[in-house]
Amino acid sequence: MSQFGPLLLHSVSYAGLWGQASLKLDDFLEKAAALGYGGVMLMAKRPHLSVLDYGLEECRRLRDRLEELNLKTVCIAGYNNFTADLEHGDIPHREFQIAHVTRLAEMAHALGGNLVRVFTGYESGAQPPAAQWRMVVDALRECARRAAAVGVTIGVQNHHDIAAGWEQMHDLIQAVKEPNCRAMFDAWAPYLQGADLETAAENMAPLSVHTTVADYQLRPRYRYEAAVVNYTPATPLVQAVPMGEGAIDYRAFFAKLASSGFRGSVAYEMCSPLRDGGAMETLDGYARRFIEFMQAL
Fold first, then answer.
1. What is the pLDDT of residues 212-225, one digit of tens each?
2. Tell me, what CATH number does 97's domain have?
């Protein structure tokens, strides 16, 4: 673990979004510190770090609290879709979102941080794929240039449709061609896509500044067809489980990241229903298990 940056806890884990126990932002900070994390990844929407609720003065007060709790590293987790509502081209959605990401960069700077997580876009039938690719590249480039004014790096997570595969994510970062636009490359996506995890990690490590972690098991699903008295396979359910109990080979992933030059921060998130439920003691247990797993590497 020592070769990586600090371990962060993502506040989405305690936001109550999928029915789990929830904490207000101040209480979450105390929880992260009590569990032994060195920093936090803050969800940039309600009920946590919304731009509607946190101006620069509120961010300065929040920074004081982070320092009191010895949470030394802060990453802001933005939520965007640069290809949203392409059916209505008269509405400047990308301008809205670039302005939003710029504001998040200013907030990160005010909190003493230098990272903002962003997404790409979900594919739409309203424009050709090549046009949507250019939209994402152009939006990321402008976000990065604006964030550079306050010393913040824009980190692109492999989550949305566009550049979901590691090969295209590699292409995307190269296409944006800004020193402060990097990847926040996670293991779960290439695992689910059937990619070779170590090859993906080896290629993405030099371009990555952060990775967010959750572990999963697959649960087969079927639809019953009465006419043939049989079942048709459906898309498997992806079930969140404690770190180290899932099917993703995180030991190999982290080993290849480290040997390929990755030295960034690592965050843990619980962003979907957990196998063992959503009680506070369950959330805390999963969060502790992640630290134990990383310390044993």
1. 999 999 999 999 99
2. 3.20.20.150
